Amino acid sequence: MREKILYGLGALAAVLLTHNIWKMLTGLPDEAFQGAIFRIIFFHVPAAFTCFACYFTSLVASILYLKSKQLKYDSLSVSTIEVGLAFGAANLISGMIWARIIWGIWWTWDWRLTSSLICWLLYAGYLVLRRAVEEPTERARLSAVMSILSFSVVPFVFFSIKWFRTQHPQPVLYGEGKMDSAYRSMLYFNWLPLLMVAVMLVAVRMMQERRQREIDALRRTVHAF
Amino acid sequence: MLFLRQVATVAAKDLRSELRTKEALNASLSFALVILLLFSFAFDPTSEMTREISGGLLWLVFAFAGALILNRSFARELENDCLDALIASPVPAPALFLGKVAANYLLLLGIEIVCLPVFGVFYNVRWAQQPLWLLLVLVLASWGIAVVGTVFSALTVNLRLRELMLPMLVYPMLIPCLMAAMQLTTPLLAGQPVEGDLLAWLRMLVGFDIIFTALAVMLIDTVLIG
What's the ipTM? Predict the structure, then answer.
């Protein structure tokens, strides 16, 4: 039953995405200065939002794990970080493609880009850390600490375009930024399917983690005999 | 008051055992010198360009050398189960942690003080033009390195591949601190005082120190005891 709901969610996300892409390409006009490439914003920004949402969920899950010592929170934390890394990579790569077209370079070391990359590396470090610990409860404890420490960079990534003069554009969704309402609603509306995909992936990953724990428990039982 | 005495006791113990064996100190110092030497092959050490990247160079040396000290900080206690004894002792985990941070901090500052003149001689940089500002940057940034490094030293102490994991986790976390230190040190070595835009970097260093000291003290119980 649960798996059916997940597949349904995935199918719905696919339908929504197709609809959105169709509308982006046919319904919305080109942006005045950037032309057609501007449409990458409908994936670049929602991918970043999804990534931040994943990291934040992992932070909450890590705190909950440390409070309750229930391993399900640990699986939630690792699942959200893996999915967050995927969306973080989507955000970085789409940003690089966009930068190549508009700025003429793939990468520039401004604050927003640098801090996003640092953030990505820190959470990648989280996954490497997990691999180095054998014992499940110790792994959960240490990685919860790592997740909490890593999150300290996230607000910095988010506000860097507000705090510093960056080559990356200033905020267009909050503050003084302006964006046409058709573009804006498209952006938020395209966030929905990406978020659905993320939720689906996290749920699938959590199921895998649960089964892994069951297998480990069975293996221990067998060894005991 | 008792807390501070406990911190001082742990720090004194660490410093004493380090100064008697000098195992991390010697390794770290010679490593720093080797890196300074290696950098001279990467570019012309007497050119004007050196002055422009001197801050970055110096802090890379300190960060690399610091990792050796930080690696030993908790690993030293593994022999004879000293770490278990320390955790079982009446010293609270934050005091144990801050004591170790203080010891690492002093060792790190010591290495930096030794490296600075060597750097000045090798690369023809007059480093003592703004001694007080430079000292302030050293004091602030080294505290950041010591705090973050000691947390991760405790975090990785029981892991396989400990020596590999520590730098891999610590350096990304230290980037804001190192970046601010580099941005401040380069103009200081050129003799400019800290003013205007540079003050923002100083604020960032202070903020980094406060945030990570608070986070570390909050989390250290979980890291060490669970």
Answer: 0.86
